[in-house]
User: Which sequence fits this backbone?
């Protein structure tokens, strides 16, 4: 089930994706979904990839998000912005994927079994590049060390540029709670990045060469 739209103040006329809503009203749901994919496909994939740290799983979840959007666009009531609604779907599907993965990992007896089964690919894909490409490898590792709730908040705010008010709609939590979560995460993230850079600077330079 898609997330419930929660913002009664977001009118259709003020939505930057009003053209998508117009297509839905005209009965062109497939065209509306295609436009959403063109507009937000890369951003949704980047979020899924960074949240899940698994390119194959991110591909699967990315497809699920837009299939769900295609299914539910006819019922979109405009009580939130289309982009907020879409990322709420993405967050729910990422959480589902994490639960499924945890259940699968629980079947392994020990870490050696997990390694023999093949770990997920930790390498970032070109589409994942964040502002400073030189720090991307380190940033991915450090963000992955955050707990799921903090990682989601950091990615939505800094990678996707959502305000805390929009994040509150996506996550179903108070904006102040999410702001505090990001604020608490930043010193931990900064220390982790500094530690990685100081410890792995030679490796990073070799990889960049």
Assistant:
């Amino acid at each position: 089930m898609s997330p419930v739209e929660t913002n009664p103040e977001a009118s259709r006329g003020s939505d930057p994706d009003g053209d998508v809503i117009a297509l839905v009203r005209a009965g062109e749901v497939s065209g509306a979904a295609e436009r959403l994919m063109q507009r937000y496909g890369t951003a949704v994939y980047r979020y899924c990839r960074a949240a899940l740290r698994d390119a194959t799983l991110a591909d699967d979840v990315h497809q699920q998000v837009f299939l769900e959007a295609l299914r539910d666009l006819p019922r979109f009531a405009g009580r939130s912005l289309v982009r907020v609604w879409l990322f709420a779907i993405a967050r729910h599907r990422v959480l589902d994927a994490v639960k499924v993965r945890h259940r699968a990992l629980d079947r392994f007896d020990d870490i050696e079994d997990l390694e023999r089964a093949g770990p997920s690919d930790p390498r970032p894909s070109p589409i994942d590049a964040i502002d400073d490409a030189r720090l991307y490898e380190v940033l991915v590792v450090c963000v992955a060390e955050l707990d799921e709730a903090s990682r989601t908040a950091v990615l939505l705010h800094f990678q996707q540029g959502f305000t805390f008010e929009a994040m509150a709609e996506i996550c179903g939590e108070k904006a102040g709670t999410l702001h505090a979560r990001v604020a608490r995460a930043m010193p931990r993230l900064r220390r982790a990045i500094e530690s990685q850079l100081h410890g792995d600077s030679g490796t990073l330079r070799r990889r960049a060469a």
Summary: The first helix runs from residue 18 to 25. The radius of gyration is 19 Å. The chain has a mean pLDDT of 78.
